[in-house]
Design a protein that fits this description.
Layout lengths: L1 H16 L7 E2 L13 E2 L7 E8 L3 E3 L2 E5 L3 E8 L5 E6 L1 H13 L4 E2 L4 E4 L4 E7 L4 E6 L11 E7 L5
Amino acid sequence: MNTIRSSAMLALALLASSNVFATGNHAGGHGHDDEGNIGKPGVAAKATRTVNVDMSDTMRFTPADISVKQNETVRFLIRNSGALTHELVLGTEKELKEHYEVMKKNPEMKHADPNMVTLAPGKSGEIVWQFTKAGKVDFACLQPGHYDAGMKGAVNVTKAVAK
């Protein structure tokens, strides 16, 4: 009986520590840390500008190419003007592809990460992000079929000029 109880407790502990739950919710676990290759969550009060992004059923973001400066904190105001659920997820191309494969297998998955927002039709949301490294940060909609249809874009982060 103790063996069964111990096994059950171990299984519950492993489940509790997992990033993906049977209920379809997850948070974190996308292969990047908060100060990784794509930057880190920003503080809204420190945002230097706002970028409006529209998501539509044409499987496109408008704009799909955004330019920012290294260390800039940007407030993205995101609107879903379509009739389908869409999301905007910031990440590296590798992270986005890996996450997309998980989403195709678990389309009911809900998200709670600061680098993403999932929006029902007609709804708006925001992401506040600080781009700490120069280079390219990708973004995409990872709803099943949307990424394959071309619903992706990029934030081009230009190197900060030393003073």
